[in-house]
Amino acid sequence: MICNDIFNLVTYGIASGLITEDDRIYATNELLELFGLDEYEEPSPAPGEASLEQTLANLLDYAYEHGILKENGVVYRDLFDTKIMGLLTPRPHEVISHFRELYQSSPLKATDYFYKLSQDTDYIRRYRICKDVKWTADTPYGTLDITINLSKPEKDPKAIAAAKLAKQSGYPKCLLCMENVGYAGRINHPARQNHRVIPITINGSRWGFQYSPYVYYNEHCIVFNSEHVPMKIERATFAKLLDFVKQFPHYFVGSNADLPIVGGSILSHDHFQGGHYEFAMAKAPVESEFTVPGFEDVSAGIVAWPMSVIRLRCRDTERLIALADHILTAWRGYTDAEAFIFAETNGEPHNTITPIARKRGEEFELDLVLRNNITTEEHPLGVYHPHAELHHIKKENIGLIEVMGLAVLPARLKGEMELLADCLVTGKDIRSQEELAKHADWVEEFLPRYGAVTSENVMEILHREIGKVFMHVLEHAGVYKCTDEGRRAFGRFIDTL
User: Fold this and answer.
1) Residue 411 pLDDT > 60, yes or no?
2) pTM
């Protein structure tokens, strides 16, 4: 059977364009070496077509049964199947050369090729991504995207214990470093033999362009500094974002903020995230326009969005950069005690910006989301962070992706919502169940708004209500609320520009 699976894998590589028919014997021999085999007999007749997922599963089972794979948990299996796929993945120079060749005729063709390659190599595991639970939620602010992420595998207890005992390595320094390309991985760092990066230059500096293995939205890409330097929002950030969308006008790109709580999960390595997708925030209209003295040629306005967003638009990117820097500088030092906005407390800075860039026709657009990470005894995780009553659904930081209108919710919610649905249909007591008790207050609040809850409508109800919770999450994260008082306070800041 191992010959069948090797044949199927090599045939997959040829069909997907990773290798050619001329490479069949070479690729087969590399796989024989990996599995400690000296002989191979090509199946005749050829075996029926098998999915990549099933073929890899068969090969992993063989490896474990024959002592090649020492442990059979998902972490160990992922390390080994990445090594397998690395044997079929084109060398970096081949990928880079073909990308650049396609780019000459069309940036869209170049990214289409690279995105498909990143999936075909199994760096993006299609068969896991399709398991993510996704839906949309209509709100007064627009249609929000909701996803329960299931594509990032849960580590088994053995792997967790082994990771704690593993020697800490400084190579690669983090998951975003260039040195990940081709890296074999270890128990506490994923393998990346099937990973490729396109070197690009933005604003005169060397960066890398790759896709996220978890693709939260279409063509979810990561653009990262070739040097391991920390996140920093500054004038050059705006220049880099706009230079990227000049080069890839079909993509948006944005940066997480550079402070804890309001920043992303990796603050130690300067990076952006982008993609070929239009989020609800990008579709949201400007609710009120204003003009900044000295920048009359730049359109500016406040966006109708639960977070506090200033939208700038102009054909001239240098003018956009100059005004964005002016607003950033003003916001960094801005305090309005009446609105509970403090630039710093005890020497700790609180104000920063989450910027997003895109191209609209002949004009460039910058959305500047005002952020503040102050904490209090009442809100120890952040005043402008989801408050405690929402933590049963979303407790994690509100980063760039959530800011734009996509909720990335924890995997635990899938099982909890299934159990909760059963309780609502059968009338079981929610508070008596340890796993569900945290949802009880929420359920008691929304349930009276509905009539009969049945197996046919229960999940639709839960999805709708989770969407409302995420809307409130964004409202909590907004430094200026969408109220008359909040908009007056927002206006006071605008008046200082």
Assistant:
1) yes
2) 0.94
